[in-house]
Amino acid sequence: MVLSYDDGTIEDIELARLFDKNKLVGTFNLNSRYLGVTRSWPQKNGDTIYQKYVPKDSLLIIYKNHEIAAHGTLHKNFGDILNKEILEEVNTDIDALTKLTNKDIVSLAYPFGNTNASIAKLISRTGIINGRTVADTYKFSLPEHYMMWHPTCHDSKALDYLSTYLEMNNQELSLFYVWGHSWEFGDVKRWYDMVKFCNKVGKAKDIWSVGNGELTKYLKAIENIEIKNNRITNPVDNEAIWINLSTGIKKLNPGNTIKIKTMAKSV
Ligand SMILES: [Zn+2]
């Protein structure tokens, strides 16, 4: 399961705490230039919404157990700006977040969810290995493209889909991918739905709650596995992978080979 949250406003503090309580891992997509500031967002009806962003010096405290990811340094719409500016938005965000956290920044959520094949290709030159859209699929399948990764659904619908997911008994890998904004949890009903959702997921024994970057690396590692003559080999420069054997789940470290008798069709 991936839980991907955008913008880095101070409501992330409460959400990250909820994830921590349930041993869940979030992916938090931040706009580095807004860290520590209060910003006004003019609304169509004439109102103005003010948003407060988390302080720069607290990232490693708030997001201690979570992945920190990019969301464009100034949240510009990539569909409205030149390639040069897109790269600047992404690279500036990566640099700033890397400096503040000392961690590799490899995931990104597109501001306003806006992207296309050429933008995705452009950004894949920056060190980003996955890019999330807001085009909900309402499915639990793995992504077709890491750089145009369509989530399962927005968190406002996540609870509706959870029992179907928990009841699935599928041998193939599946993914429940939820996205949203913590500032939307000002709506009390939605917050309590999220609390319920996290409590249930936290209790599930067969869900791996993981950052988008770590999941991407793992899926790529699976692609690198060599299967020949009933032997499964994990290349030396790969990551460790887990194999579901009739005797149980076994970890296969890089450089190791395992001999098996027969293979299930879904492998
Ligand atoms: Zn955003």
Automatic annotation (TrEMBL):
InterPro entries listed in its UniProt record: Glyco_hydro/deAcase_b/a-brl (IPR011330), NODB_dom (IPR002509)
Domain of life (superkingdom): Bacteria
Alphabetical list of Gene3D superfamilies matching this protein: Glycoside hydrolase/deacetylase
Domain NodB homology: start-end pairs: 2-128
Protein name: Polysaccharide deacetylase family protein
